[in-house]
Amino acid sequence: MPPEPFFAGPGIDRADALRARPDEVAALLGNERATAVMWSDGAPALGIDGRLQWQSVAGDEPLFLGLDNGVPRFSTLPDGTVPTDSRAHFGMLGQLAPDDAPLFAAALSLANWHRRHGFCSVCGSPTDPNRGGWSRECRSCSAEHYPRVDPVVIMLAEHNGRMLLGRQPQYPPGRYSALAGFVEPGETIEAAVARELFEEAGIRVTNVRYLASQPWPFPSSLMIGAIADSTGAALVIDRTELDDARWFTRDEVKAALTGDGGASFLPPPRFAIARTLLEHWVAGSAS
Prior knowledge:
Elements: H1 16-19, H2 22-29, E1 35-37, E2 39-40, E3 43-44, E4 54-56, E5 63-68, E6 71-75, H3 90-95, H4 101-116, E7 127-130, E8 135-138, E9 144-145, E10 150-159, E11 162-167, E12 179-182, H5 189-201, E13 205-216, E14 221-230, E15 244-249, H6 250-257, H7 273-283
Helix pairs in contact: 6-7
EC number: 3.6.1.22
Cofactor: Zn(2+); Mg(2+)
Domain Nudix hydrolase: 147-271
C-alpha cells in the first residue's frame, strides 16, 4: 500500500485532561525530563538527522504539547515572525523525519495562532494563554478563544482513466499537483470539491469520495483529500488561479512518481498530501 500522508502520524499523547489542571501542568514544567522545542528562523529546529531538537524549558509562555512516552513536551513562542509560507521551508520539510512531523505541525500551528491572537475578537482587550496554551482568555470580558483550523479540500478528478492536475504560478518549472481550495462557510466537503473544480478548471464532477487528510501548518490548515469523477474532459482554466491544467494518464503519473527522467511533469514533494493521493491512484487504491 502507498504511504500515509506525511503529517498524518499519531504524534504524542496530547493529554487533553491535563490542560484544564494548571497545577499539574506547572508540575510537569518542573519535571527534570521536561523539554521544549528549539526554534530556528521562526520554525522548529531540526538536527542533521531530520529530528526535532529539544532543550530545557524556558520562556514566559510555555505551551504544553503533550506527553511523549511519559516525557513532558513543551514549546515556547519563538522570537520574530513565524512563517506562514511553506515555500520558505520546503528544504527543511524535505529533511523532516516523518514520525516527528505531527509534533512539528502542532508546534508551528500553535505558535502561529498565538502570535495572531493577542487581542480579544469580542471586546479588543489583551488575551493571555490558558489551558496549557491551547486557548487564550480575555483579561476584560473573559471570553475564551481556541486555535482555529482552516479546512481545505485538495482533490483529484478522473475521466476515462486520466487524472486532472494543475500548476500554480509559484510552482517550480514543470511541477503539476492536485487542485485545492478552502471550504467556505455553510459548505460540505463534497460541495467544496465540486465548486473548486468547476471554478478553476471548468469541469463538473460526481461521486466525490474522501481519501485522506493531513494537517498543513502554514499557518494552520487541514488538507482534506478527495477524488471525484468528471463528466467531461473539456477544460476552462481560471488563469488567475492556475498557469495550466492537464489530463495525465496513469503511466505518466507513475513515471513522475518514480523519478523517470523522461516524465512529462514534476510531481509534488513527498511531504505534500497531493503526492499521497497520486500514489494511491497509481496503486489503484483511490477508488
